[in-house]
Amino acid sequence: MTGRRGGAAGLLALAAVVLVAAGCSASGPADDGATEPWRPAAGTTWQYQLSGPLDVSADAAVFVVDGAETTAEQVRQLHDRDRRVVCYVNVGAHEDWRDDAARFPADVVGAPLDGWPGERWLDVRRTDVLLPLLAARFDVCRDKGFDAVEGDNVDGYANESGFPLESEEQLAFNRAVADLAHDRGLAIGLKNDVDQLAELEPSFDFAINEECAAFDECGAYAPFVRAGKAVLHVEYAAECPRAVRGLSTIVKDLDLGAPLRRC
Residue 184: CB partners within 8 Å, gap ≥ 6? Predict the structure, then answer.
């Protein structure tokens, strides 16, 4: 599951002009033989649904959905509607309900995530153990036809993970996860990790943020905005926040069901 994670307030101001990366499109799957992965265009519309029956009719160009629960047929249905589909994978925390949960050795599973039963932080220093497990998950995303990956919980170093994680170790892990996606022809979005946005922007194709308006952190996304990369922004609120230039903002309930309000 997902939800608000740690991170300090951003210090950068948003760029005044949003540059749209050349060749980016939020339309259906590419068929031009290009070797580069699809990347969402800055300003694209999106839907974030991780619970309940999938509503493929939602009015959005990009769908972020659970990689394990979503079927290849549902991905195909979305592609038939000219939607792009992003595969949610929890890369930085152990989820005890996943089919592969038993494959994670006990010594890489750390402290519980506050407010998220069944989830525990992973020791991201143990890339020898974690990367093969994540590679197998990304293979599933690729084989189902997903266009991209969202890797959740990539800021354990800034939380009480149960491990003495350093910022450089987190950077190394996050970049390695990005490489796993790119090696499979998948784009990848950087989830939160606000304090490391500038360092990680070159390795990631877009960003996903939770509640930067509520935490006064949206300005930190200036590196992605300047690079013409989409910033898919969700607030868990009853009303839309003040408009944030350069971000694709939606409002959702915390359970991330089908109801969608675009801001």
Answer: 138, 139, 141, 142
Residue 186 lies in a domain: yes
Rounded to two decimals, the pTM is 0.88
The domain tally of the chain equals 1
| Residue of 38, 115, 100, 92 whose CA lies nearest to 68 | 100
Is position 105 within any domain?
yes
Which amino acid is it at 213?
A
Domain membership flag for residue 35: no
- What is the extent of the structural domain holding 241? 46-262
In a domain, 12, yes or no: no
Read off the pLDDT of residues 58-97 as tens digits, 9 standing for 90 and up. Answer: 999 999 999 999 999 999 999 999 999 999 999 999 999 9
Contacts of 102 by beta carbon, 8 Å cutoff, 6+ apart: none
Alpha helix ranges (H) inside the chain: 72-80, 127-144, 167-183, 197-200, 222-226
- Phi-psi sector, 256: left (phi>0), alpha (psi -120 to 50), beta: left
